[in-house]
């Protein structure tokens, strides 16, 4: 077997190649757009939306093609099934939103968060959004067929999203890119080589390191993301083996943090429904990076994340490293015992 074939056949080789294949085209495309349009593209909301969606599309296309050509897998085999994808995305979105809501309630109770400005009409739209999303999730759970009521709720959902449409598109692009790379490639390939626990730890650390690139990032914030979000998204993927679930939770977490509650998302200001103010110790609130980097989020999200890990272990969804070794040994025995044609 040639060196190239050995690299392509190994999990770590596939991981490196797929990361390069995903990252390089997206980076080259962004560089070309900057060269053509200049820095003004990112300075405008329309340009920011265009860049995020374009990058996400490139990452998605390259990821799917890498699965098929390198690993000989279909998208459904890694968690991108066409079956009930919207239901998984929607319920995940509501779950991520609910988790962020708990964090913000705790901050409000402790006097660290308050809404400074709210348009009554926009509040009605937000209520429509949440009610429509909850009812749609319930309908998709009980009935797979789409009827008249579904379309009414879709319209209500679109009406609710109107004040934050631009923000939603930006956040969708970010959630898709990060989940495809961190859960779809890094976590999955590490798990195949070292088992679930090591894969959770390493992918979560890398997730935290990525967010250190934010101009307002702190070491405490990065550690917070490792403990909370990095572990949480990996645990959700282990329990569901669905990237739709992971994308949904990630998107819901960011959407409620930014557009709904009006606070910064990983150091970025995301326009939405309310204007708000965060006060108090930065270590508790997350400061200018956002609540995700504070102790409030670490305690709440960390507890949920480790509960989900415990639940996955109880349900035997975790892949232990010794099991991978047994599979490798069995495969080697099969190859050794196979008849040789002379």
TrEMBL record:
InterPro entries: Rce1/LyrA-like_dom (IPR003675). One of its GO terms (biological process) is CAAX-box protein maturation. This is CAAX prenyl protease 2/Lysostaphin resistance protein A-like domain-containing protein. The chain crosses the membrane at residues 12-37, 49-68, 89-109, 121-141, 148-174, 194-213, 220-239, 293-313. Pfam families: Rce1-like. It comes from the Bacteria. Residues 164-256 form the CAAX prenyl protease 2/Lysostaphin resistance protein A-like domain. One of its GO terms (molecular function) is endopeptidase activity. Keywords: Membrane, Transmembrane, Transmembrane helix.
């Amino acid at each position: 077997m040639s060196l190239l074939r050995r690299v392509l056949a190994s999990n770590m080789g596939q991981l490196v190649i797929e990361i390069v294949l995903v990252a390089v085209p997206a980076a080259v495309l962004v560089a070309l757009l900057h060269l053509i349009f200049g820095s003004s593209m990112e300075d405008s909301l329309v340009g920011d939306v265009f860049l995020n969606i374009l990058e996400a599309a490139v990452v998605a296309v390259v990821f799917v093609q890498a699965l098929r050509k390198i690993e000989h897998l279909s998208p459904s085999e890694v968690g991108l099934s066409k079956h009930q994808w919207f239901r998984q995305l929607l319920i995940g979105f509501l779950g991520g939103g609910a988790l962020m809501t708990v964090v913000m309630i705790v901050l409000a109770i402790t006097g660290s968060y308050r809404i400074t400005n709210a348009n009554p009409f926009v509040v009605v739209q937000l209520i429509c959004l949440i009610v429509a999303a909850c009812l749609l999730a319930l309908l998709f759970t009980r009935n797979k067929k789409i009827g008249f009521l579904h379309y009414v709720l879709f319209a209500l959902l679109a009406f609710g999203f109107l004040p934050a449409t631009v923000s939603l598109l930006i956040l969708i692009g970010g959630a898709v890119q990060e989940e495809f790379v961190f859960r779809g490639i890094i976590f999955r390939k590490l798990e195949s080589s070292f088992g679930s626990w090591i894969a959770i730890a390493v992918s979560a650390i890398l997730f935290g390191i990525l967010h250190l690139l934010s101009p307002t990032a702190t070491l405490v914030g990065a550690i917070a993301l490792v403990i909370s979000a990095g572990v949480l998204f990996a645990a959700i993927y282990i329990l569901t083996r669905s990237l739709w679930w992971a994308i949904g939770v990630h998107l819901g977490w960011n959407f409620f943090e930014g557009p709904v509650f009006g606070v910064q998302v990983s150091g970025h200001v995301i326009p939405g429904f309310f204007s708000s103010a965060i006060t108090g110790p930065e270590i508790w609130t997350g400061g200018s990076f956002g609540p995700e980097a504070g102790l409030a989020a670490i305690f709440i999200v960390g507890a949920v994340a480790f509960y989900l890990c415990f639940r996955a272990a109880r349900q035997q969804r975790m892949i232990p490293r010794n099991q991978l070794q047994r599979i490798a040994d069995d495969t080697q025995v099969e190859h050794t015992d196979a008849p040789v044609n002379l």
